[in-house]
Design goal:
Blueprint (H helix, E strand, L loop, with lengths): L12 H17 L13 E3 L2 E6 L5 E5 L4 E6 L2 E7 L5 H14 L21 H23 L9 E3 L4 E7 L10 E7 L9 E7 L14 E3 L6 E5 L9 H23 L1
Antiparallel strand pairs: 1-2, 2-3, 3-4, 4-5, 6-7, 7-8, 8-9, 9-11, 10-11
Helix pairs in contact: 1-2, 3-4
């Protein structure tokens, strides 16, 4: 089954992105440090994303289809904050106030929350994006299950609002150990639309010669890599199958090169 057209969900992304950043700031303030900055990540779920259990026991979930951030304790909803009509700053204050009313003291970094324009979320578009994110998560999860070696979890990064996983040759330190990154971005200005992406550390310029024609190579990122635009796969009858085959082919070529260079 094809994926929803980008034009049908793209306007939901800004509000959902800003709301995800609210979850991130709360999670960072109430979670112990993790390797490779994973404290700054969220876990994707079919309806959106979640912090999972925070240090004080509660959980924040961003439900795209409801257009709300929901706080739960012991599996029971305690409060929810609707996105529409609130700025990112107001949404953050509402969520933090609800957590404090639930009896928890928290001192998050407010400097990371800067949005002052009212969020406008179309729930029909938000539902479509929830479908896109979950299908791309499932696609990347299948790829991840086929990789041999140390790996980071497949997570959602609120900073860029992208799904991402890391595969390592040996060791698991992102800043030092050779690795391959696969991910899905809902769109950045340089590409102009959503895309599936990859890059390696260290850079492998020769990898460019092993890529299918439909993959675009770029040296404009901090690490050279490649991407496949959404419009190149979204309308396929089985877009995930083609993506999985392509990414596994890239993994086979990149892993051999990384092993040889390490």
């Amino acid at each position: 089954m094809s994926l929803p057209a980008y034009a049908d969900w793209k306007d939901a992304k800004p509000a959902l992105h800003q709301a995800a950043q609210v979850l991130n700031v709360i999670r960072v303030a109430s979670h112990d440090p993790l390797p490779n900055a994973l404290r700054h990540s969220l876990r994707p779920i079919p309806s959106g994303a979640t912090t999972d259990a925070l240090n004080f026991g509660g959980t924040l979930t961003l439900n795209y289809t409801d257009g709300a951030i929901i706080y739960s304790e012991a599996g029971q909803e305690t409060f929810r904050a609707a996105l529409t009509g609130k700025s990112q700053t107001a949404l953050f204050n509402t969520v933090l106030g609800g957590i404090q009313q639930a009896g928890h003291t928290l001192d998050p970094d407010r400097a990371r929350i800067t949005g002052t324009e009212p969020l406008n979320l179309d729930l029909t578009q938000a539902k479509l994006y929830a479908e896109v994110q979950w299908r791309m998560f499932q696609m990347l999860a299948i790829v991840k299950a086929s990789l041999f070696g140390p790996q980071n979890p497949l997570v959602l990064w609120p900073h860029g609002f992208d799904l991402s996983l890391l595969w390592f040759v040996d060791g698991m330190e992102e800043r030092a150990d050779p690795h391959l990154n696969f991910g899905f971005s809902p769109g950045t200005p340089d590409v102009g639309q959503p895309y599936v992406y990859f890059y390696t550390y260290p850079a492998l310029p020769a990898l460019r010669d092993h890529l299918p024609d439909w993959v675009t190579w770029t040296t404009n990122w901090s690490a050279p890599g490649g991407y496949i635009k959404y419009d190149q796969f979204a309308h396929d009858s089985q877009p995930e199958h083609r993506l999985i085959d392509t990414l596994l082919g890239i993994y086979r070529a990149a892993s051999e090169m990384l092993k040889a260079s390490s």
